[in-house]
Design brief:
The complex is a heterodimer of chains A (about 325) and B (about 375). Chain A has about 325 residues and is of the alpha/beta class. Chain A has a single domain (about 5-240, about 290-320), classed as Rossmann fold (3-Layer(aba) Sandwich). Helices cover about 50% and strands about 15% of the residues of chain A. Chain A contains 15 helices and eight strands. Chain A has helices at about 5-10, 25-35, 60-65, 90-100, 105-115, 115-125, 125-140, 160-170, 170-175, 180-195, 210-225, 245-260, 270-285, 305-315, 315-320; strands at about 15, 40-45, 75-80, 85-90, 155, 200-205, 230-240, 290-295. In chain A, helix 2 crosses helix 14 (about 305-315), helix 4 packs antiparallel against helix 5 and helix 11 (about 210-225) packs parallel to helix 13 (about 270-285). The longest helix of chain A has 20 residues, at about 270-285. Chain A is elongated, with a radius of gyration of 22 Å. With about 375 residues, chain B is α/β, with parallel strands linked by helices. In chain B, strand 6, helix 13 (about 255-270) and strand 7 (about 275-285) form a beta-alpha-beta unit. In chain B, helix 5 packs across helix 8 and helix 8 packs across helix 12 (about 210-240). The longest helix of chain B has about 30 residues, at about 210-240. Classes of the chains: A alpha/beta (about 325), B alpha/beta (about 375). At the A-B interface, helix 4, helix 5, helix 6, helix 8 and helix 9 of A face helix 7, helix 9, helix 10, helix 11 and helix 12 of B. Bound molecules: adenosine-5'-triphosphate (ATP) (2 copies) and magnesium ion (2 copies). One magnesium ion binds next to helix 2 of chain B.
Chain lengths: ~325, ~375
């Protein structure tokens, strides 16, 4: 098993973040599959809008599709041997929270049936995040009768960067406004998990290209400011440069002479892309102080991207092959 | 389809660049603004770019309190001649929200109460739609000022292009009268509401703690005064943006997810009766720049080994496919844009170009398009 991956599966909760389209969902599913194969009881989660959802562009979740479903279940259910899935729904979080605060039930019921309160909970600053946060906390707390956690490893496919920071930064901002009471208690309990590097880590997925690498470096800084421990950076789409140094030198000359004559060649752009990829993955390795995991680009015609990536996580050899020489 | 983009830049009064996160909205806005100023128009570009890339590219300081006019030497450097001018402003949502509050709330004591309220301080960052609302507010103000021929609005970073269009309704949901009434002083409301009010205060007091519930009351209480004006503004804004000299452009990349979203966005603008005008396919490979396939004979002539040649030819094949794919894509988008709409492609540029060079190159691209 990849050494860095061993560190990852020791955690209770892992947040997978990064900019759009870099492969967060694929990596989330691959980690879940690999961790389950390593014997963990895994819960995969993503943030859903839930029942009062105004339908968006996707009437399915790309993450759920990787498990052969249209959506992750609203209530935790097994979606693959050893892997459970659940949406994190703000509204459900609010219900759970109100029920835990007003044990008597009558007030909780009244509150839940009050249209005005419902609206306030949906609209008021940050209460949406509080709901999501409370769902997560509930899953973290769940225990078997023998006291061991039901969800040994929770992996969250986070929305793109800004939303991640909104969630990880939530306790700090809210606690500056609400210092006492049940919400404050829940936030502090959540913090005791999320800010503990032995239990929680964020992993940033990125690509070996200039902009994603720069944004990753910025995001690491942002996460640090919200006290969220960072477990590592996952460099996805690591492609193998087909050319040797000798070949590169020769081809460079050919391209230069054709450019000079005004007859540029096809293939030059990709040729330079490999160079950029190497330069950027070196820059990333140099500038970050957290572990770097490399995941290779799937070969064309690869049947299951998720199990291909899971294999890479479980066998360090496959990953090294994708690393730059 | 030639000439449509430059005509649009020459004739529109407002161009709004929408799109999913990171597709190039800010870059496209900057390039359109330069292209417009080169045509001799007085242009303002309003941008919300937290990483301040455009500001740095244009040499404008961060978060100034008002638009900054680019000095003559900078204008000349990018090919802008009088009477063309270019102003740029990085929007600071908090600043605009504060200005709004000062303009709307009459009682100075209330202004101070609101501006120093702990919830209000976070509201521009935490309430969905607030960013977008302040951007529209600024747009409205500058268009009415008559100082500009063209205002280009770069929309805030968001996951979905749609967030910008939906901002007003989200904000209205937040500003929903029913929520506010819960916090109105009891003597102005009837018995039923008082009952609801006490439930609310018991629940909120119990859940949030007295202190936060108190802050919420002050916040909603004072904000209720702002509410009426804001709601009117939000709906007025839509009329304002429905005018024919307004153009909504959707910036997209060739990635399938971005395209899917682009089409959804177009349908949505139709529904909302907003003037959608076209697609900008950014980071495309639609231009072949006369590149030739590296034939074996040619490479052997350069004493390249056959095995090396094959590797290069594999890459060349996929590039050729990419060019073909993106050229088809633009055509397809142009068809979907319908009558009076267009689609134009912007090339993917080298990452090591400076941001200013990128803007200029892309502005050049609009000349003939
Ligand atoms: N290592 C890889 N090799 C090949 N293809 C990959 C790899 N990782 C991801 N992909 C492909 O890239 C695309 C985007 O991946 P994915 O949906 O996981 O990204 P994401 O970051 O979750 O995107 P979004 O921002 O839309 O949620 C998918 O088509 C996926 O199959
Ligand atoms: N055609 C292009 N070729 C190469 N790089 C580009 C191109 N268009 C934009 N970029 C680069 O991509 C980055 C992101 O672009 P930009 O900031 O304009 O996107 P955006 O849509 O405004 O992002 P956000 O959603 O974060 O506001 C910038 O560094 C920009 O220089
Ligand atoms: Mg995803
Ligand atoms: Mg931007």
């Amino acid at each position: 098993m990849l050494e860095q991956f061993e560190g990852l599966i020791k955690k209770r909760i892992v947040l997978i973040t990064g900019k759009g389209g870099v492969g967060r969902s694929s990596v989330t599913a691959a980690i879940a599959m690999a961790a389950a194969r390593a014997g963990k009881r895994v819960l995969v989660a993503e943030i859903g809008d839930g029942r009062d959802n105004e339908q968006r562009i996707h009437d399915y979740s790309p993450l759920a599709r990787l498990f052969g479903l249209d959506h992750l279940p609203e209530n935790k259910a097994e979606i693959m041997p050893g892997v459970w899935g659940s949406m994190l729904l703000p509204l459900k979080g609010h219900e759970l929270f109100l029920a835990s605060v007003f044990r008597v039930g009558a007030l909780a019921k009244a509150a839940l049936h009050s249209e005005a309160l419902r609206r306030l909970f949906q609209a008021a600053p940050s209460l949406r995040e509080v709901g999501i946060f409370y769902c997560l906390l509930t899953y973290l707390r769940q225990k078997h009768t023998d006291g061991t956690p039901s969800n040994e490893l929770i992996i969250v496919d986070m929305p793109a960067t800004g939303h991640t920071l909104a969630l990880t930064g939530l306790p700090k901002i809210l606690l500056s406004m609400v210092s006492r009471g049940p919400i404050a208690d829940a936030l502090r309990e959540g913090q005791s998990y999320l800010n503990d590097p032995d239990q929680a880590s964020a992993y940033v997925v990125t690509l070996p290209e200039t902009l994603p690498v720069s944004e990753t470096i910025e995001l690491l800084e942002g996460l640090k400011n919200t006290n969220m421990p960072v477990g590592g950076v996952i460099l996805n789409h690591v492609a193998q440069d087909p050319f040797t140094t000798e070949e590169r030198l020769r081809l460079e000359k050919v391209f230069a002479s054709h450019r000079a004559q005004g007859t540029p060649l096809l293939g030059e752009e990709s040729f330079h892309y490999f160079e950029e990829a190497r330069r950027e993955s070196e820059r990333l390795a140099r500038e970050i102080s957290v572990p770097l995991l490399r995941l290779p680009d799937a070969p064309p015609g690869c049947e299951s991207l998720v199990s291909f990536l899971a294999d890479s996580l479980l066998s360090s050899a496959a990953v090294r092959a994708g690393a730059p020489q | 389809m030639s000439g449509e983009v430059s005509k649009l830049i020459r004739e529109s009064r407002i161009i709004v660049c929408c799109g999913a996160g990171g597709v190039g909205k800010t870059t496209t806005s900057g390039a359109i603004a330069i292209a417009g100023a080169r045509m001799g128009r007085r242009v303002l570009v309003l941008t919300i770019d937290p990483s301040k890339r455009l500001a740095e590219a244009l040499g404008v300081e961060r978060n100034p309190p008002a638009p900054v006019t680019l000095p003559a030497d900078r204008l000349q450097a990018v090919g802008i001649q009088a009477p063309g001018t270019l102003d740029a402003w990085m929007l600071d949502p908090k600043l605009i929200a504060d200005q709004e509050v000062r303009a709307i709330v009459k009682n100075p004591e209330d202004i101070e109460k609101l501006l120093s309220n702990r919830i209000y301080k976070h509201v521009t960052t935490m309430v969905a739609g607030m960013h977008e609302y302040t951007a529209m507010q600024a747009l409205h103000r500058f268009v009415l000022s008559g100082r500009y021929d063209l205002v280009v609005l770069d929309t805030p970073p968001s996951r979905h292009a749609l967030d910008f269009l939906e901002a007003p309704s989200r904000l209205s949901r937040f500003l929903d009268g029913r929520v506010f009434k819960m916090f109105m002083p009891a003597e102005t409301t009837g018995g039923l509401r008082r009952a609801a009010g006490s439930l609310v205060s018991r629940v909120l007091g119990g859940v949030l703690g007295e202190q936060f519930a108190g802050d919420l009351s002050v916040f909603f209480g004072v904000f209720a005064g702002v509410l009426g004006t804001l709601n009117r503004d939000v709906s007025g804004m839509r009329d304002f943006l429905s005018k024919p000299d307004v153009a909504f452009l959707l910036v997209t990349s060739p990635a399938p997810a971005a395209l899917e979203e682009a089409l959804f966005f177009q349908r949505k603008t139709d529904e909302l009766k907003l003037p959608f005008r076209g697609f900008v396919l950014n980071r495309s490979h639609a231009y072949d720049y006369g590149r030739k396939f590296p034939e074996t004979a040619l490479l052997i002539g350069h004493s390249i080994a056959r095995t090396t040649a094959e590797k290069l030819q594999n890459l060349a094949e996929s590039e050729k496919d990419l060019i073909g794919r993106d050229q088809e894509l633009v055509k397809d988008l142009a068809r979907r844009a319908g009558v009076g709409g267009f689609a134009t492609a912007l090339p993917v540029l080298l990452p090591n170009e400076t941001e200013m060079r990128k803007l200029e190159t892309l502005a050049d691209q609009f000349k003939g398009a």
